[in-house]
From TrEMBL, chain A:
Organism, scientific name: Cellulomonas soli
GO molecular function: ferrochelatase activity; heme binding; metal ion binding; peroxidase activity
Protein name, as recorded: Deferrochelatase
Reaction catalysis annotation: heme b + 2 H(+) = protoporphyrin IX + Fe(2+)
Region span, Disordered: 115-141, 318-342
EC category: oxidoreductase
Automatic annotation (TrEMBL), chain B:
Record lineage: Bacteria, Bacillati, Actinomycetota, Actinomycetes, Micrococcales
Span of domain Imelysin-like: 149-393
Keyword Phosphoprotein attached: no
Species per Swiss-Prot/TrEMBL record: Cellulomonas soli
Protein name, entry field: Imelysin-like domain-containing protein
NCBIfam families to which the protein is assigned, alphabetical: EfeO
Lineage: superkingdom: Bacteria
A family per Pfam: Peptidase_M75
Length: 466, 400
């Protein structure tokens, strides 16, 4: 098992999106059942073992393997765009839930390789039926699309009533609830909108083209009608974290580099220690949670920034609050961007150079028992409020091994003490268990060599239902 | 008041049919058998009809028909007798391609292109070998469809008949100033309209004359129909009327509005009772989907009955209309795609049960403004759950 980041594969061997099945099968030989050369490119291909810097020229054509020990979209070099959707199940049938996950998995396996959602594609098939793919990505390259699935706490134990009555275990999964899938506490200054929080299932679609990401979620939600409905969605742009050493650290809407101290895809040991759920965690649970081994937890927080007041703030205060310089992103204790902050260094007045209430200090591993996260956040701008202020900020996404140790303590400290909180408001929240990947070579392929859904098709989270 | 559903259609015992309509999601291959999901190409030219292969294994086949000629063309798959049409695509313009997806049993067929859409077509024999894949037995589709059409037309006439009777009573009460009686008749009468609305829509201008909401009105256009009267019976406050005090209709305006309602409804009655009125199977199937679209865009949002809030009557009636449309077609669907038939039955039942939580025609429904967001979302989800499989109905019925 390797923890190296996914290596993008060029689009040369994979069929172009929208390529007809006729083309896949070789013109005029439509009846020779069998796997067409190239049709299965990207399936069963093992993850790359070395980080491959994405060449900008080939970025649109790149695909990441869907199968592997872990789901794609975690250590994958962060793409530029996000469309994340949380779903609520409308059924109480375990069978229907499994059926949905099976269909979703096949569809995700197809879409991430630049294939259409269904076998016919957007412009063919029965003329009196709606096309089995919505079509808006027909002429677009795969754009490095990844689709990552997760399960919310409510899937296991339902949603408690406001009066404290426990929720319902609709699918017989309560005894499989992993210990880390807690109800997040109320953090100081939280202003959470229930309509932007939680959910039974989550789908994170990331791509370098927003239309490709939206197309993926749209087709998955269509496949869910009758089983699940969208609870909330979030569009994001301009990734705010670097998840690979090959990537430059991007900037958040405060104009600061964000994600300098992120766990990188190349840090195998750190990934094992901080990101992937080890078998020993299941052993420590009172429930049977071994199904999550090799997976992770996804924390999602919609953090609105009051950017108008921030923009009126002096550069001195901006840097003091963050604890880094605005241009280089170097810690105020000196050096360059990737210099470790010296939290003990003091200035002429004897005060720490990195202020005691600065974001960098309070989020630093040494302040948080050495824990680290793999952050994969995105900026968002969702129109404006009635006062003419942008509804904008950071859609914080982080993958962690255990939210109880790797997120809750840190966020409690930040929400209480971080000087940056003056300019922040948490308006949405979700915590999801992200199962391990679908094994290489396990996808069921149809006659045309592309993934198809059968009773034997594998699905994300299969171990949970075993 | 009881509402008639068409009697179950007697099934005709049949000869073994050749083609079944296609499920959009072909069943996975049974072990040991390789399902035919074969793709064949057809090139239609002025004097040629080149099919990429002369035989194929039984199962689901897709003929990708490309018109490489300069005239509009058609492509037919004919039975062994060369007469019976198994499946067809029509009106393929020069340079265009169209898929014909069909499930075929083993046997001998003919392929035929008709460039210029005349003559017997350019024919070639086509053999379907036995792949071992089950292609389900079907009813005699042609007879079933004819029975469905007759049954549906009878239903439409019945509903429109009830509609004109109710409308006359309602209009009389309203014109006479008996608002209480008019209000009590409003929703129950509209039920007959909402059940067959796609038929009314097929007559173009009648639908807007009878059922236009104020929000749909073009600037300066004259408003008539049900919702004009609705607003006058449930008069809004200035706050709910865009900040302008509502001006009630005068006695003359009332009479005119009532007369219009009866006049236009009578035109609908005359149209559906005309000698040549038919409603074909594909129209029935599309109508079922349209009724659910109506629910999804207008009823679930509470926009249809913005003054009276009687949306649930309309909602129930739309669903019933769709259900009847499906039921007359059910024998065809059961034969062609039993899984789809099961899905539709399940989802209709689920939606009916959900609506029953909010009332009934007999006891009345709650007004739509009393539903909370969660209840509305629950209804919307049930509508989506039914609409998705319902969107496959037309293709299943027409077989292509």
């Amino acid at each position: 098992m390797t923890d190296a980041p996914d290596a993008p594969t060029g689009g040369a061997g994979a069929p172009a999106r929208g390529m007809s099945r006729r083309a896949l099968l070789g013109l005029g030989t439509g009846l020779t059942a069998g796997i067409a050369a190239g049709a299965a490119a990207g399936f069963g291909v093992g993850r790359g073992t070395a980080p491959t810097p994405a060449a900008t020229s080939a970025i649109g054509a790149s695909t990441y393997p869907f199968t592997g020990p872990h789901q794609a979209g975690i250590v994958t070099p962060a793409q530029d765009r996000l469309y994340l959707a949380a779903f609520d199940l409308t059924t109480d049938s375990r069978e229907e839930l499994v059926d949905l996950l099976r269909r979703w998995t096949t569809m995700a396996a197809r879409l991430t390789q630049g294939l259409s959602a269904g076998p016919f594609g957007p412009a063919s098939g029965p003329y009196d039926a709606p096309p089995d793919d919505t079509g808006e990505a027909a002429d677009l390259p795969p754009a490095g699309l990844t689709i990552t699935f997760g399960f919310g706490r409510s899937l296991f134990v339902g949603t408690p009533s406001p009066d404290g009555t426990p929720g319902t275990d609709r699918f017989g999964l309560a005894d499989r609830l992993p210990g880390g899938l807690v109800e997040l506490p109320h953090f100081p200054q939280d202003a959470l909108d229930p309509a932007r929080s939680d959910g039974d299932l989550v789908v994170q679609a990331c791509a370098d083209d927003p239309q490709v990401a939206v197309h993926a979620v749209r087709n998955l939600s269509r496949a869910a009608f009758g089983t699940a409905t969208i609870r909330w969605t979030q569009l994001g742009y301009g990734r705010t974290s670097s998840t690979s050493t090959a990537q430059k650290t991007p900037r958040n809407l405060f104009g600061f580099k964000d994600g300098t101290a992120n766990v990188k895809a190349e840090e195998s040991a750190a990934l094992d220690e901080h990101i992937w759920v080890p078998a020993s965690d299941a052993a420590a649970d009172t429930t049977d949670s071994a199904w999550l081994t090799g997976g992770s937890y996804l924390v999602a927080r919609r953090i609105r920034m009051t950017i108008e007041t921030w923009d009126r703030t002096s550069l001195r205060e901006q840097e003091a609050v963050v604890g880094r310089t605005k241009g280089e992103g170097a810690p105020l204790s000196g050096g360059t961007e990737h210099t470790e902050p010296d939290l003990t260094a003091t200035g002429g007045d004897g005060a720490p150079l990195v202020a005691v209430d600065s974001h960098v200090r309070l989020a630093h591993p040494t302040t948080n028992d050495g824990v680290r996260m793999l952050r994969r956040g995105y900026n968002f701008t969702d129109g404006n409020d009635s006062l003419g202020r942008l509804d904008a900020g950071l859609f914080f996404l982080a993958f962690v091994r255990d939210p109880r140790t790797h997120y809750v303590p840190m966020q409690t400290t930040l929400s209480r003490d971080d000087a940056l909180m003056e300019y922040l408001q948490h308006t949405g929240s979700g915590l999801f268990a992200v199962p391990a990947g679908v094994p290489d070579g396990s996808l069921v392929l149809g006659d045309d060599g592309t993934p198809t859904t059968s009773d034997d098709s594998p699905f994300v989270g299969q171990a949970l239902f075993a | 008041m009881s509402f008639r559903r068409p009697a179950a259609l007697a099934l005709v015992a049949l000869t073994l049919p050749l083609a079944a309509c296609v499920a959009n999601d072909p069943a996975p291959a049974q072990s040991g058998a390789s399902a035919g999901t074969g793709v064949l190409t057809v090139s239609s030219t002025a004097d040629g009809c080149t099919v990429s292969a002369a035989e194929a294994p039984s199962g689901t086949l897709t003929f990708q028909v490309a018109n490489d000629g300069s005239d509009v063309t058609e492509f037919y798959l004919l039975a062994e007798d060369g007469l019976q049409v198994v499946a067809e695509v029509e009106n393929v313009g020069p340079g265009l391609s169209r898929d014909l997806v069909v499930q075929l049993r083993p046997g001998t067929y003919w392929t035929a292109c008709k460039p210029g859409m005349v003559g017997d077509g350019i024919r070639e024999a086509f053999t379907v070998t036995d792949s071992g894949v089950e292609v389900g037995p079907t009813g005699d589709t042609a007879d079933q469809l004819a029975a469905a059409e007759a049954s549906y037309v009878a239903y439409v006439k019945d509903q429109v008949g009830a509609l004109i009777t109710g409308t006359q009573e309602f209009a009389a009460a309203y014109a006479a100033g008996d608002d209480e009686t008019a209000r009590s008749l409003y929703a129950a009468t509209r039920v007959h309209w909402e059940r067959v609305e796609p038929v009314a829509e097929s007559f173009g201008d009648l639908d807007p004359l009878l059922d236009l909401r104020e929000a749909d009105l073009e600037a300066g256009a004259t408003w008539s129909g049900w919702h004009l009267v609705e607003k006058d019976l449930w008069q809004p406050s200035a706050q709910d009327n865009g900040g302008v005090a509502y001006t009630p209709l005068t006695a003359e305006q009332r009479t005119a509005a009532a007369d219009d309602l009866v006049t236009y409804t009578q035109q609908l009655v005359d149209a559906v009772n005309a000698e040549d009125f038919t409603f074909e199977a594909f129209q029935i199937a599309n109508g079922a989907k349209e009724l659910l679209d109506e629910v999804a865009t207008g009823k679930v949002t509470g926009e249809e009955e913005i003054w009276s809030h009687t949306d649930l009557w309309d909602f129930q009636a739309n669903v019933e209309g769709a259900h009847v449309a499906y039921e007359v077609l059910e024998p065809v669907v059961v034969a062609a795609d039993p899984e789809l038939a099961d899905q539709l039955t399940t989802q209709f039942d689920a939606l009916d049960a959900l609506l029953a939580q909010h009332g009934s025609y007999e006891d009345g429904f709650v007004t739509y403004d009393t539903l909370d967001a969660a209840q509305v979302k629950e209804l919307a989800a049930a509508v989506d759950a039914l609409s998705e499989p319902l969107s496959q109905l037309t293709a299943t019925v027409t077989g292509a």
